[in-house]
């Protein structure tokens, strides 16, 4: 994870707001926060944890971490219940003070903007240098198939529509997110499709997706059905 400028002045003028939605991530959140702070020591950033009322004590862990990293750099902005991924990013964006926003998730499934001037830089598992570790064959086929289907129908101009590691210019994120209607797993796909339709420059960087360290995936049959419905909706409306 690299967020670098070309000079000390650029590092000082840019601030990165990292939004991390959580639900039952008590066993993962400490590690992801540790890795962010470890690898971004020379970067001006804040981490905004948006927790949807996790019953496993995720918020208590974040409060303990705030004592280590500071409440000004590790922000906890909880919501009362599970309200969806898209609205979690919207909620986090309201509290972001950076001029760039990084969106990611907390299950340790984990940048080029300076070089290209891109409005969005998105991580992809499906180019040279990218990949997936820890998934069985069925999970790999499901993910790859979903992306191929979406690329065929929507032509978004990117290879990985469902990844959750992206860097946005804050103004671009505010514009794109205001036109999105999806709230669940389709949200990531809708964001990148609408950004492409609006003419924003999107660049890709390879990432290696490592399956969650603790807990089980929240992806199930209902999410797959939701994805297919979202695909049809975007085909008809974009």
Automatic annotation (TrEMBL):
It is found in: Endoplasmic reticulum. InterPro entries: DPM1-like, Glyco_trans_2-like, Nucleotide-diphossugar_trans. Pathway: Protein modification; protein glycosylation. This is Dolichol-phosphate mannosyltransferase subunit 1. Transfers mannose from GDP-mannose to dolichol monophosphate to form dolichol phosphate mannose (Dol-P-Man) which is the mannosyl donor in pathways leading to N-glycosylation, glycosyl phosphatidylinositol membrane anchoring, and O-mannosylation of proteins. Belongs to the glycosyltransferase 2 family. Residues 17-176 form the Glycosyltransferase 2-like domain.
């Amino acid at each position: 994870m690299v967020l670098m400028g070309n000079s000390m002045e650029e590092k000082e003028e840019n601030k990165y707001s990292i939004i991390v939605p959580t639900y039952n991530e008590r066993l993962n959140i400490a590690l992801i926060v540790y890795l962010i702070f470890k690898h971004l020591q020379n970067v001006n950033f804040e981490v905004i944890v948006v927790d949807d009322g996790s019953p496993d004590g995720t918020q208590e862990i974040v409060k303990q971490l705030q004592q280590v990293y500071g409440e000004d750099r590790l922000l906890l902005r909880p919501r009362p219940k599970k309200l969806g991924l898209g609205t979690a990013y919207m909620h986090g964006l309201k509290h972001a003070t950076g001029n760039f926003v990084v969106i990611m998730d907390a299950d340790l499934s984990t940048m080029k903007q300076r070089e290209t001037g891109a409005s969005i830089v998105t991580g992809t598992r499906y180019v040279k240098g990218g990949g997936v570790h820890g998934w069985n064959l069925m999970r790999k086929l499901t993910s790859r198939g979903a992306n191929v289907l979406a690329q065929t129908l929507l032509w978004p101009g990117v290879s990985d529509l469902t990844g959750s590691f992206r860097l946005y210019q804050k103004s671009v994120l505010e514009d794109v997110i205001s036109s999105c209607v999806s709230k669940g797993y389709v949200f990531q796909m809708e964001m990148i499709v609408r950004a492409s339709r609006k003419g924003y420059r999107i660049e890709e960087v390879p990432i290696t997706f490592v399956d969650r360290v603790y807990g089980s995936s929240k992806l199930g049959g209902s999410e797959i059905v939701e994805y297919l419905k979202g695909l049809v909706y975007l085909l008809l409306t974009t």
